[in-house]
Structures are given as C-alpha cells and as structure tokens.
Amino acid sequence: MILLAVLASVSGGAVAAPPPARVVSLNLCLDQLALVLAAPGQLVGVGDVSQDRHLSARWREARSLPAVRMRIEEVLALRPDLVLLDSYAPPHMAALLGRAGVRVELFPEAVTFDDGVARVRAIAAALGRESAGTALADDMRRRLAGLGADKQDTPRPLAAVWQANGFTVSSGTLPDDLLRRAGFRNLAAERGLGPFAPLPLEVLVRAAPDLLILDGSTSERPSLAEALMTHRAARHAFGETRTLVMPHSLWLCAGPPNLEALDRLVAMRNAIEHRR
Amino acid sequence: MKAVGRYRWALVALPVVVLAAISVLVGPAGLDWSAAIRDALSGRDSVPALVLVEIRLPRALLGAVVGAALGMAGAAMQGLLRNPLAEPGVLGVSACAALGAVIAFYTGLVRLFPGALPIAAMLGALLGTAALFAWAGRGATVATLLLVGVAINALAGAATAFSLALSPNPYAFYEVMFWLMGSLADRSLDHVALALPCVALGAVPLLLMRRGLDGLSLGEETALALGISPSAVARWIGLGTALTVGGAVAVSGVIGFVGLMAPHAVRPFVRYRPGATLVASAGAGAALTLAADIAVRLLPTGRELQLGVMTALLGAPFLGWLAVRRRRGNGSRGAPWL
C-alpha cells in the first residue's frame, strides 16, 4: 500500500485521491506558492527560510506556521501526508519520507515566468485545489498583459545584474527571463557567461550598461559580499538614476511577486527611454 | 654622508613606486590611458577615469600602505623582542586585529560609524600585542615566543570564525577566508581613507623609538646607561605595532609573513641596526606586498588567489629556513639575534 502510494506520486500524482489534509512544503519557492494556494489549515509546515522577510514575499503568512529545517525528524513530527520538495532536495530525503509512508511531490526547477505559472497549476493539483490554481495562473497572465512589458519593438537598453561577491546572472535564470520580458538586454547573456558567473567590477564599469540591478540585502547585518555592491566605483559610474535595487523576494522565485519585479523594471526602462 | 642618505631613501622608495605603477597597469581589461588621466585630473566621472581612480589606484595605494605597515611592525617586533622569527602574522597580532574588525563589521557597528572598523581592529591588535609581550616578552626564548604566538593566533582565528558563524547574514560565514587569508581585491578609496591615518599614526611611536631599539640591541644595561628605558620602549613599540597592524588588517585581512621577510631582506643594507631597519623594512614590505598582489592577478588561477595565500606560500618556507639555520647555529653574523 505504501509502495503504491509512492509509485503513484512518482508517476505524476494524477491518480484521483482525496486532497491531502496535512501538507509540509520544504522549499522557499514552493512554500510561497503553497501558502497562497492551500486551503485554510491544509499547510502545516514550511521551510524556515520562508519566514525570512529578506528572501520570502510570504514571510508574514509563513510565520504563522511551524518552521521546518531540512531535517527528516522535524518533518515527520508534523505527521504530513504530503511533502513538497524541489528536484534539488537531497535524494535521501524523498526516499526516507517515502519509506515512512509519506507522499512526496518533486517539482522541477522554475527559471522563467511561464515556469512559474506552470508551477502554480502543478502545486494546486497536488493540493487538490485545481480551481484556486487556475484562478491564480489566469490572474498572473492577465496582470502580465496589463504591464505592457512584452513590447520588443523599440531599441532595448542594456542591463547588468550585480549580486553579492560580484556575481552576475545569465541565460537560464529567472532574472534573465524577467529582464527580457521587460525589454532589456542582459549584459551577461550577451557576453555568453554561464548562468551564475563572476563579473569583475572593472569589467562592469567599462561595459557601462544603461541599468545596474543590485540585489537587495539578505539580512539586517552586513557582509563583505554585499558591501561590494556599494563600491564607490559602481556608485559613481551609475548613480541613483541608473541603479535599481531588486529585493530577493521579488525575483528569486518564480511566481506572482515576479509581476512586481517586472513592474519596477518596466518603469526603469520607460525612464531610460524618456531620458534619451 | 648627506648624499648617501638621499641615495638610501631612493633605494627604499624606488621599488615601491615602480611596483605601485605596475600594479595600476594590471587589470582585467585594457584602459584608455590618455582619457583616464585627462578625465581624472579634470574631475570628470568618465569610465576610464573611474577605473583608474576608484578601482586601480586604491589597490596600489593599499598594497603600499598595508605592506609598509606590516614591514615596519615586523621590524619593530623583531628588534624589540630580539627575535628573528617575530612577526605580527605568525604571532597572532594580525589575527587579533582581524577579530576586532570582524566584530565591528558584522554587528553592523560600521554602518553607524565607519571608523569603528579600524578602531576595533587596533584594539584587537593592542590586546594581542599586550598578551604576547606579557607572556613572552623580552628575554623569552624563541620557542616560548613562538608557542605563545601560535596559541594567540589559533585562539583569535577560531574566535573570528565563531563570530562570523553567529552573524545572521548568510554570506558572513564564508568570509572567514578573507579575514584569515587577506586580500586587496575590490577595495576602494574609502578603505585607503580608513587605513592610511591609522598606519601613519602608528608609525610615529615606532619611528621615535628607533634610537631606543638601537640601544636595546646592545643589552638592557647598556640601554639603561644610555638613558633608554626598556619598558618605555616596549610600551611605545607595542602601541605603534598595534596601530599600524590594526589599520592595515582592518581593510585587508591578515596578510602573513610580510613582517617576517621584509626586515630580513633589508637588514644587511642597514648594517643590522634595528632602528634603521624600520624604515627600510617598511619599504621592503610595501614592495613585497605590491609584488605579491600583482602576482595573484597575473597567475592563471580560475579565481583570483588570496593575497594572504601568496605571501604564505613565500613566507612559510622562509620561516622554516630561518628556524633551521638558527638550529645549525651558523647564522650569527654580528647581530645578537641572527
């Protein structure tokens, strides 16, 4: 019976079954969607990172639930009948949960806005909340169309993302997808850099992109990694009008907060076009 | 005699100036030099001027300032303790400075007051120096000094890692490498402004104690007969060491072995007088640090090697060589500690 349940979940969870009553989600990105989609009382635990207001758009709601670290005992203590994991979760975790008779749903990476919409539907299906999923997915599509983001006719300004330790993001990442949708070219993608690659300050300044996008902070406390983003050379080269600070909660995970990120990017693009 | 003195100054300054110039030339991409210099002089924030003034210049300046601080502090410690193996990095003074800097930085104190960074580093270095001098001061054997230094170094390093682990910032813990194996990558003129005054301030007592160090090298009784108070010399050298090392480590992390190698490199040229060694060793320390910092940028490593790793690669074998040479007892060449 347990084996059957595991097999059913691995084969896509399409088998008609009563909706799960006690769900634990263990990934920052899945948690935020589950918090929106789950029925009241259905979600009984989320990852501790989801309570961090610097990283999670749903940290308030997450704080009303027990925070779970990636420890199997903590998960089992919540007596879940469904656990949501991302495909990068440690493999032994899913295996152990399966042996304990808990259904596990693994979700693939979501690195585009469309992936986010698909994920909304998939999580809703796993929770037995298909109608809520359809409503949210349609709402995301409608709001995206309303942003006027997808206009690609005018010359597209160049943007560079600069994160902690001087890293940048390139093709195959969510920020890259959102930049394209907002009508920007991504410096890292144009240079053929890997998805997450170091971008030396000197190279960044010399490339002189129209917009510099810095990561928001991850904590009230400072770090050298993040202090680098406020280096005098970057401040002087770009100034306030050509710098955008993007909070992690808006574009670290695919989902509805991406619309707010797109809104800010489109506003910056309009300002840049206006100055020209 | 005057001409010789001037000639010696050039010997100290020339390598530093040349290496600082080379340091400014080294970068990940080419630079339009005429535009960079023209815009920098006219105060325009053009891209070449920014790269020159805000990125390359601070790195070269810090290489010179940090290296000079470590070279002078090393010479002062070797002179005072009459011990060829004394050095702020090896004996844990730098690690104590790093601990102070880490506490000031990661608690967020530096956001309220940027000067807290070097001040805390100097306080840390002062505590480290005081502990070192108290437990293994003048007259202690080389073995005692090194053992006490090893203990201070290990404790300060562990406390630094512990402090970083307490920070809620997810990046903090991974920055232990910067603090214990320092670097000059991506430093700015802000860091020059923090370090330079502290190092200059610390150099004053060290330079004022040149005669005291020379006197002490003749033995404590001779020094007393010359009107030199050994304990006063120790206090001022300790203070100067703490200020110079603290100012340097606050912006660069621990860069070891510079203070060990620099005095040995120049001592034959200053006739083994500890007082004269101070200035020459500051120059040698600056040159050595600049050269090592140029090397880490030119080496074909995937990611830039930490400067502290490079100086340790050079300095640790040198320390071993010094220790072996001492043991064989053939190192005595006129100076009592060699």
From TrEMBL, chain B:
GO MF annotation: an example: transmembrane transporter activity
Assigned keywords, A-Z: Cell membrane, Membrane, Transmembrane, Transmembrane helix, Transport
One protein family per Pfam: FecCD
Primary site of residence: membrane
Transmembrane stretches, start-end: 58-77, 89-109, 115-135, 142-168, 245-266, 278-299, 305-324
Keyword Ion transport tagged: no
CDD domains: TM_ABC_iron-siderophores_like
CC per GO annotation: plasma membrane
Membrane topology, as annotated: Multi-pass membrane protein
Keyword Nuclease annotated: no
Subcellular location: Cell membrane
Gene3D superfamilies the record matches: ABC transporter involved in vitamin B12 uptake, BtuC (1.10.3470.10)
InterPro entries: ABC_BtuC-like (IPR037294), ABC_transptr_permease_BtuC (IPR000522)
Signal peptide (UniProt feature, chain positions): none
PANTHER family (UniProt xref): ABC TRANSPORTER PERMEASE PROTEIN MJ0876-RELATED, FERRIC ENTEROBACTIN TRANSPORT SYSTEM PERMEASE PROTEIN
Family assignment from sequence similarity: Belongs to the binding-protein-dependent transport system permease family. FecCD subfamily.
Protein's name in the database: Iron ABC transporter permease
